[in-house]
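Lecture notes, structural biology module. Today: joint structure prediction for complexes of three components.
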Amino acid sequence: VGGGGAAVLTLLSEFGERDGFVGVVKGVLLRGCPEARIIDLSHEVAPQDVMEGALVLASAVRYFPPRTIHLAVVDPCVGSGRRPLLVETDDYVLIGPDNGLLSLAAKASPIRKVIHLDRPQYFLATPSQTFHARDVFAPVAAHWARGVPSTDLGTTIDDFTRLELPAIRRIEGSIEGRMIHVDRFGNLICNIQQEDLRDFRAEDLSVSIGGVQIRGLSPHYAAVGEGKPLALWNSWGLLEVAVRNSSAARVLRVRSGDRVQVRVQGRRG
Amino acid sequence: VGGGGAAVLTLLSEFGERDGFVGVVKGVLLRGCPEARIIDLSHEVAPQDVMEGALVLASAVRYFPPRTIHLAVVDPCVGSGRRPLLVETDDYVLIGPDNGLLSLAAKASPIRKVIHLDRPQYFLATPSQTFHARDVFAPVAAHWARGVPSTDLGTTIDDFTRLELPAIRRIEGSIEGRMIHVDRFGNLICNIQQEDLRDFRAEDLSVSIGGVQIRGLSPHYAAVGEGKPLALWNSWGLLEVAVRNSSAARVLRVRSGDRVQVRVQGRRG
Amino acid sequence: VGGGGAAVLTLLSEFGERDGFVGVVKGVLLRGCPEARIIDLSHEVAPQDVMEGALVLASAVRYFPPRTIHLAVVDPCVGSGRRPLLVETDDYVLIGPDNGLLSLAAKASPIRKVIHLDRPQYFLATPSQTFHARDVFAPVAAHWARGVPSTDLGTTIDDFTRLELPAIRRIEGSIEGRMIHVDRFGNLICNIQQEDLRDFRAEDLSVSIGGVQIRGLSPHYAAVGEGKPLALWNSWGLLEVAVRNSSAARVLRVRSGDRVQVRVQGRRG
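The predicted structure, tokenised, for the full assembly:
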């Protein structure tokens, strides 16, 4: 069953803040569910960058109240055949296009149902083919928030598009990863997770990136001198390279997709 | 009469997100009307660009709950003689400076009253001459939201400043328009409306812009190959030129104000 | 005692809008205090610019309802020794790192208590060392909002880090200040306050900046011709230099830290 009138809804999109697109989506949500609490996750996902949107969404879902609805729209194929989707998990509900955007977040809680949103009676009348956030996803989210069961909103399906982070490569004595996100500070976030290196001590690791070598992991950003590079486990649980009080992306001339190598220098911990 | 305590208020401005201007306006709104639901439309309207603000506002108003208050401030002449205004329509209320900003949105619903907000007892004490959003418009909006009738808030007037979209030109066999907005994606939006071309079939039209010719209109962005230009009716009901998964503004080197031409190539539908 | 369930909370940070950091902080706040009203002040404070954050916060606090909680995080030394702080004043509560960020806002209302937030039972379990907004400050703010007394949340202390605006210099017949903030419009805001010049008439003053001299203060931005420079008392009560319908920072090639001189040309008023 739905979340009741005081549902929390989050929004994530590639819409930016300039053109009123996000505000209009919120208008539709409030018209359908006047009590909804609406929280912005990000609207500055790079246009068409489904992976970036999937990462930001996955980093956020665990911090919201139970039964929160996460509406996410990075949707380069809006209006074409791609399916509109609702994924109900034990802890939250994900609504958005079936292009992988929801799939990283869907891993973090057991999936109850996957619904193909194919019932136009829950959309705005005469939906456009270019703005499904407004015309399809927001009305459906409002219906769910007000208690319409998922199975009424569409057809139960088994499969949906899943994205995977690029795999890390384990080469004798080292792990090779890739930068997958550059954050607002210019911090470089890669696909190496804390559990990938759980057998090793932080002080035995050495991180190579953009021509520099960083020995050991730091506990926080202020553990090295001004302008010096450091590596740490970040707040998403991923390996991050930063430059103190500066932008690692700019200083090290590294960007999303570039390689990073972690070598083990000491003995196993 | 006003909207009651749980009024929905939207905000549109040129204030940006850096300096706390928008937050302060919200503080004043909440002080005056603690139950107000406040939604941002855009605060990234280009500084002093009244037309851009008017377009974004007009595209949004129909999607909000009845009796929503839209507070809009793009206000290069703040503090000078320009009047502060409240326009009450059958469906919503518009509050902002009398410089045309409200006028495109005011077209979409029958106007009940136009009020010159000339009663300082509804402003903050000792209002500044540089920040009327905070000192004049927000307090008035909160009073209206709490039920103060429009006619108490100022003097009823008949006229106010109206903006018009630049007119299209019909030349034998073609229509000439102008680009009026470039959105976040670099999509180019012009002043040609769907009804301007209602006599013709989408497949008979040809759009010339920035040295390229686009044959036919597409139903959505994914209807052409990666990097190819397309034209479509966008979510505002206006003709838009896009480049798939890229920025039409950058690829075609077109900007706001540039001409676009639509030719009819086939016979009438 | 705390603010009750319907507390108003504001957020100010250096987090930007892209990475979901702000949304996650709001999720934690709503989990702890479902009725909280959350307002963004700014998340575009320049990374690590504690002074800019302190200025924006100080300009805003007086406009919010009584007992508002202001959560502010510009925190280059997160995870190191710097203390997490709660400052309770007669009018509002400030929560953030002890690096001066809260200190300008703390001047505007009598301080009741300063609390070192040293009780992990009020944090998220296993807080990170890189994201205290999410793991420390938001949970504490939610506890305060729900009525946990300040003195339960940590240890009362006497001192905390205070920032001061750079001092103005009074030289025979003139006052020298410094630009301390460039706002979204490119307006240049300096450290000279209205009371610093209370003995003089606006028309007797002359402002020198970036090689130009501006005679007299204007009441508002539209008091000079298009593209002309002007000086005025801005909405923060500080001396500001603007260029009508343009960016003073760009036109005058002035930036934060640059000097500005005010000379008195006429006789005292």
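Point to remember: The two ends of chain B are 48 Å apart (CA to CA).
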